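Incident log, structure service

09:12 report received: a user says their structure output differs between two submissions of the same chain.
09:20 pulled the input from the user's history:
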Amino acid sequence: MCLIAEVVHSCSNEKVAQAAVASIGSEFAGKVKATASVYGLSLGAFTARTVIQFDRTCGGEEKQALRRMIQGTDQPILIALEHILKPVVDRVGANGIVDA
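09:34 re-ran on a clean worker, output below:
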C-alpha cells in the first residue's frame, strides 16, 4: 500500500487519527484541537474528516508532490498527515478564529 493510502486508511479512524496528531507534537496537536473545536468536532473526528476530504478532492499532481516530499523521511506518515492538516489549521488561524 502506498504511504498516502496508508495515511488515509489509518487516519480515517478517529482514535488512530488522534494518536497520530499527538505523535506529531503537543504544539501542533493543540492547534489542530483548537481548529477542530471551531467545527464542533473532537481532534480525532476533525483529523479523520480532513484526511478523507483530502483523499477525495486532492488531485494527482498534489498527491505526487506529497509522495516526493515524504520519500526517504524517517516518519513519512506523520509528515504526510501534518502536511494534510496544516493548510486547514493555518487557514482557520489566519482568519482570526483560532489563537495559533
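09:41 both user submissions now match this output. Likely a transient worker issue. Closing.
09:42 reviewer note: The mean pLDDT is 89. The first helix runs from residue 3 to 11.
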